[in-house]
Amino acid sequence: MSRKRNRIPLLRLAWRNTHRNTRRTILTVSAIAVAVAALTFGLSYITGILGNAVDTYTRTESGHVRIRKSGYTERERLLPVYLNVQDLATLLPAIRAHSDVKEVLPRIRSAALVDGAGSNRPGLLLGIDLAHEDGYFNPSAMVDEGRLPQAGRAEVLIGRGFGEQIGVGVGDSVTVLAQTAYRSLSGLTLEVVGLAVSGLAHLDNSLLVVPLDQAQELADLPDAATEILVFATDVALAEQLAQSLGQELNPSPESSIEVLSWLDQSPLIRMLNTVRPMLGVIFGLLLVMAGLIIVNTMLMTVMERTQEFGMQAALGMRRSDIVALILSEGVVIGLLGGLIGAALGTTVAVWVESVGIDVTAAMRSMELPFQGTIYPDWRLLYTVSSTLVGIVTAGMAAVYPAWRAVRLSPAEALRV
Amino acid sequence: MTVARLIDVHKTYMVGRVRVPAVRGVTLDIEHGAFMSIAGPSGSGKTTILNLLGALDTPTSGTVQIGDGTTDGLSLKTLADFRNTHLGFVFQTFNLIPVLTVRENVDFPLQLQGIGNKRERNERVMKILQEVGLGDLVDRRPTELSGGQQQRVAVARALVKGPRLVLADEPTANLDSETAGEIMALMQMMNEKHGTTFIFSTHDPLVMERASRLVRLHDGRVASDEGGNGGRHAS
Amino acid sequence: MLAESIPGRLRPLTILQLGWRNLRRNRRRTWITATTVALAVLLVQVAVSLLIGIEQQSFDNLINYQTAHAKLYAEGYFANRDELPLDYTLTGLDELQATIRGVRGVAATTPRLSFSAQVSNGVDLYACIGVGIQVTGSDHDVFRIPQAVVDGEYLKSGEDGLLMGTGLAELFGVDTGDWVTVLTKTQAGAYEALDLPIVGLVGTGNPLIDRNSFLVPLEIAQYMLGLEGAATELAIRFSPTARDDETIAEITRAVQDLRQLDVKGWREMEEDFMALVRVKRTGQGVFLLIFIVLAVVGITNTILMASFERTREIGMMMAMGLRGSGIRELFLTEGALTGLLGGALGSLVAVAITAYFATVGLDLTAMYGDMDIGYPVKDTIYPAVNIAVLVASWLLTGVLAALASFYPAARASRHIPVEALRHV
Fold this sequence. Notes:
The structure holds three protein chains of three kinds. By secondary structure, chain A is of the alpha+beta class.
């Protein structure tokens, strides 16, 4: 004989049951709320940090994919200009032809000895295609005073800190001594047309930005660059793009070209990425704790209501209904806690995102591709998924109490 | 000599938003050494009278005198100290502390009286436990005892500090009639031996029979007061 | 007289006994609550001991290989120290050292001459930091370079040679026994080149040294730079019992009449690093706090439940004359005991984990690969187990748990006996 099931308004009943002991419910709910709030904020925060680091690192250093001469990576710190990529005129259009490619940017990096007003210091000379670098190296956003250099002219944008160290400002000229592709030294006098502030200490204290053609002339690299940065339409495609570009540019096994995705270029970025699984463990612990608190509370409510369950069973309520009722109570607690926690976590994340956390002082000692202010990156997805995780945790925590509740036969339960 | 006295006592409770008068003008004198029963149907005010006499509650109007003083305007803390010094309680549901042994349960009120000497406390505890016939069970937990044994412990606990007045709210309601008789006999014996005043509320006619004085309540008023002016001991 | 002053209290021992037995009344609940506390304690202790381990090790590293406890500079040097200038040098070193050694709390001093140099293996040229150290005299009294020599041997006085950072050697592809060219510019502005053999490699775990520095005997540095008898700094090691700030103040007093000199403690030299440490501490503190909050919620909840269950018992105890404060003490004790139980559980596991890593070490290289993580530490970290800290934090857990029980305990203590007794 089958009768129509599910006539019991479980959620409404569960909701009313949470009102039996409001204080206890509030405390239980707060456990889930704390966990969900921490989860929401934590996800936003970590995404903010990683986003900041990945974004800055890919834009200023690695691209989504970086193409360089084989052997460059090992000697990266020496900035070896003699290891370079030739024949840009045919290479660049070939890369651009790729469907996932958004931008292709040749750059020249070179160590330079810079003579300013009487003192000289080593600096980092960066030759870039100024017309296409907006949104990538983003030199125009760095200009703090003066203007950008123009292609074809012997002009330079220097880091403000660096300018102060060698004692030059806008309108002064500097002489740059650098290695050529043939390992000889070559010099060039440049007019300082702008001072740059990037927010990255290691750049501001060493950077010289010149038009690509000037750097090519100085380093004797016509139609060549030390690196080609490739940006995909989405950073997630980087790995895939690196693979296909690698096969295309390096048909023979004795490769002469290195093609590396951003993730493979920096152990530091790799380390930052290990933060995610570590955080997963921490959040897991947090949820276990919140879950245990719920188990405890619900065990007590279930024990208190043993007779009630016995009576309900005697009236013909099935065990599965009682289990469903208790699980629903867990879900209601999870829902309440989840919503409160989500509201709290979201508020904090959005607020901190609007003001930022200033860590400039802390970042000075690390040569990190990292802006001095951390902005959490809140997304609706984080709030929604944290809430869901909270609800599921609470629901799962209710399983054991539910099992305890239906363990006794109606007669036994009534006798308690 | 009067141990306790109620003078035109009224007590009204708020149940939700409804005023429920539980006691409506009761005047009673309780003589030293009385073995008194308060009877009446449910809701007649028995428990309220006991609570007022037990300084667990204060009247809405009227005066409650216990010993030389009144409970008027005393703080909760002072009431607690007062109960501790002068009163003993026996409850319907025994109400022993389940995590303590028999000995420790009886020791509890002595500790509350601030008797620091452990040997003195132990002597008194053992003496009273012998008297109630539990000398062999001192190290049991309440859950290991029968209902009658638990109630004996409760009686011992009420008497151990030598109170002027022992209040027992339906002490036999959870016991079978044979055990109920034994508990009543025990209390009667203590009443005679130590002169302790006992007041108990009950429905049970067998219990009422044993009382030296029987006060019947109806709707919060004294309906009858038999047995007169003193306890069995005094008369 | 009604209000006789007889204490309606229980002896502390009885309270403790009642609390303990009440915990055993609902063992499942007690264990679940203790587990939440244990998880929080475990995480906090492992995190803290690991972080303190890393911090302590990096501080030691800085002191042992880079900053010493303090350094004495000629006035003007400190502000420009990043450029390694040769314009602010110390002379009359013997006399200066004698003065400093006389200061209470100073264990040893040694002069060092730091300079910027280009090193070449014949192919590449790389700008590095050169450090001239007094080999026979005193450098090893202040710094721990000899212990960091991972290949070849330590410098010998009077012999030409240099010790090179492992990272730098790797970059050049050179090894012990190879020759490199060191290019410097003298204070007068003339260029000087010198071919030197690599006598050994130093691996300190400190990126500044391993990746960017080489060490030469002081006489050679002085010769190359044309700075006979001079040094850029006098590094000072304190005796283990000396207090940093007091000793620095004493040194400052001792040298103030001599010349224009700057005394800088290692913390001041490494301000940026200390800032990084502070930010990390704050961030980690926030995360740990969340766990503590959850544990507090767990205990509050449990004690609240216990007080609900025992309403009648509370009423009965009050009827017998136990004051509200006594009821409060009972529940506070129960909370504290739960906390101590969970704390002990968590601490035990934490100690086991920490002790494991303290013996085998936590290999950072395996986790992160070889790189500069901004902390001057060796690849392997040995977290520290500190019994005093352990016991203190265990007791703190108990105190915190008692605080967490305060609300439910206070609620329970406010019961009216009659109503509590009527409770079913």
